[in-house]
Amino acid sequence: xxxxxxxKANGNGIxxxxxxRRCMTIAKELADLGAEPEFILSDEDSADLLKTLSDEDGVxxxxxxxxxxxxxxxxxxxxxxxxxxxxKPDFFLIDSYFMTEEYFNLLSSAVKENSPGTKxxxxxxxxxxxxxxxxxxxxxxxxxxxxxxxxxKLLGGEYAPLRKQFSDIEYKVKDSAGRAFLxxxxxxxYHVIGTMLKSVYEERELNRNVPxxxxxxxxxxxVGALFEDEYKDELKELAGNHPEIMLHEYVTDMSxxxxxxxxAVTAGGTTLYELCAVGVPTxxxxxxxxxxxxxxxxxxxxxxxxxxxxxxxxKVLRKIVTWGVASVDNKAFRQKMSDSARSIVGRDGAKKIAxxxxxxx
Length: 361
Fold this sequence. Notes:
This protein has 361 residues and is of the alpha/beta class. The chain folds into two domains: 4-162 and 347-360, 3-Layer(aba) Sandwich (Rossmann fold), CATH 3.40.50.11190; 166-344, Rossmann fold (3-Layer(aba) Sandwich), CATH 3.40.50. The protein has twelve helices and 13 strands. The chain has helices at 18-32, 44-57, 79-87, 101-114, 192-201, 229-241, 254-259, 270-278, 289-300, 316-327, 331-344, 349-360, and strands at residues 4-9, 36-41, 62-65, 91-95, 119-123, 135-138, 152-155, 179-183, 218-223, 245-249, 263-267, 282-286, 305-309. Strands 3-2-1-4-5-6-7 form a seven-stranded parallel β-sheet. A six-stranded parallel β-sheet has the order 10-9-8-11-12-13, with helices on both faces. Helix 1 crosses helix 12, helix 3 packs parallel to helix 4 and helix 8 (270-278) crosses helix 11 (331-344). It is globular. The two termini are 14 Å apart. The model has no long low-confidence stretch (mean pLDDT 93).
């Protein structure tokens, strides 16, 4: 039997799909290396999302539900202690920004008492404190290595856990841009995509004072797994009225869609790393606390243009459209951004993480 690796991650309409999605990528690499990954989930919502995303990818993962509260990890105990005692995994990887020092202290005690051979790891997005684990993963472009005391530190863009479809993509920057890629990840709580599409395709027709493209720009729009049904209907109506808008749901060939894009608009998250791996010039915005700082790193190194936080800046959408209009015929600008993006993101980060996990056990 292979090494038993537990992965704690959740996903829902509040925290979106990013945590589960990236952990699925790591789980796939672990399984390919002969390990036995199993997801540890708080609730049925996360289990349903894992199944939806797994069906999209054509894979299956074992999962265990703790029947706890995703936003209060302390409720994982004592159920977690009991299954640690019974199962004794070789490694326990945790991915949640709700983790506290108290949680890690309880986990350390539970591991010591019930499964002393279990190694632990944490995927960090927020840099809140020095996590008492055996391995820490932080694939931000800008990080402070000195804050971590974990024996194994996997830091920087080379450890971005991207799916294999992004490992070897040929991308060409065209003289003139005519196709855009739009995504907010698994959720769009602020209806950014709908507002943007209305601004580009409808408000210009009303002669409002908004930036506009001189020619029709086609848009590939990613409809996230957790978009509300009513919002999906709104997007479908927009697409029905404007043939330039193409909606993509339950996507299995994301890299192919990205490869055809001349520029992209996305929220911070795994999608941004994927776009950089392909080399698509991108304007990025934030809409969650854990996105704000790391996306600024992409702007700082010239890999993406940061437009702001949609929760705080009502000019974000205007900035995005203005950037798009300005970049259409500026090949040199898009080429420079594409080259920078491809240079800072690794394409085998998930495999490196999986290998490091197995080397520890």
